[in-house]
Amino acid sequence: MVGGGRCGGAVIMLDSAGVRPSQLIASVGRSFGGGMRLSGKSLKQTVAFAATVLAPSVCRADAGAPMILLVWPGFWILLFPIIAVEAAVARRIFKVPWRKAFHISADANLTSTLIGIPLTWLVMFALEMLVGTGLWFGSRSLGSGEPPAWAGYAMLPLSAAWVSGEEAWAVPAAAAWLSVFFFLASVWIERWILTRRHSLPAEEVRRWSWQANILSYSVIEVLLLAVLGWTLIVK
Questions:
Q1: Selection from 47, 63, 46 nearest residue 7 by Cα
Q2: Backbone conformation region of residue 201, classed left if phi is above 0, alpha if psi is from -120 to 50, else beta
Q3: Are 68 and 57 in a shared domain?
Q4: Same structural domain for residues 183 and 218?
């Protein structure tokens, strides 16, 4: 996400509002801490903050799209096959009937798909915006104008939440990278759900959360990498 003119519009917006980063953070903090009683100046700063964080399309004309809009529907489409696959793992580990295994898998996967995926994306997007904006402010304070080229490459692991759409391969590449974090979030969330909602041994729950998600996400990663390879070959 960082590189070229990315987020230059966000920086200009903050500058035109007369907002330094420290002022912006303090203003937003006072706004929430003071029951949202905003003065004119505080309102100006808060609007600049909201526009910068919540409307990243101002960062670039070819801002692309948030990956959550592309990957989340896909996970809902794959939900039933994932539940079935992970139910088979639950039946083997927990030694329960198929009906109970499906109940366990459905409960865990519905929660992780409904809550875990968007929350994980939101964390990745916040990191992308915070680090990217920080690089821009740092570069401007040093008088270099734009972040160095190496900063763009260093930001690649954090840039999967929002892709520019300039290259066809960027979407499957970002989806494959995001799936790594979705996998880790699913392991934790599904373990948490089963520990609290089902009377199952903690060690078996831990084994199931890892083995079931490794199996399902391995298939997802293979599919995404196949699409990535196809886009690179076609290009």
A1: 63
A2: beta
A3: no
A4: yes
